[in-house]
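Proteins fold reproducibly. Look at a sample protein:
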Amino acid sequence: MPRLLTLVLTPVLVTLAVACGGSDPCGAAAAHVAECTGSQPAAAAACDADRAGEILALDCGALAATAPGKADGLGVGSALCALGFSSYCEQPPQAKGPYVVRGAVRYPDGRPAPWRAVRLSSPSLGDSATQYTGQDGMYVFVEIPEGAFTLQVLKRGGENAVSGAWRILVEPLLARPGDDGTLYVDISPVSVDD
């Protein structure tokens, strides 16, 4: 126990202890953080002994002031993340709608299905929206809110006859930002046989 107390006091002694075959600085730093914050680390993928030494040099007040999931000027959050405290890893910003939903309609042999009516419906839309595929079989819906939807491809010449229906989900985790900041949700091609 005295060795751990010594390791908490200064990172120079951590380096010296490691060089002399002493304690694991990453384990000591994880124990220090756990004691100060009350959180437990997950298994760290890799640990930098120098960063562990920096964490050991911090008092509990400095560790407690580090907000989980945020970047900080001292780099404490990233060091804690590297030690396996995943709640301190910087979280990517969540995408927010409205979204552009796009996809393709194909025949079973892979050819595009041009000029087909595609209906997107959901209670969050209030009703439904209909778009037509282009010559390339592609369709695009804009200003679509987050939620679960039914995608239907209508039969040729039939106002409400459905060739096929699929459930789709529009949410931030599925969105890909475009160069202009537009959030795209790409739907896998659907196949119709009429």
About this structure: The helical segments are 2-9, 11-19, 25-37, 49-57, 60-64, 76-82. Residues 99-191 form a domain with the Immunoglobulin-like fold (CATH 2.60.40.10).
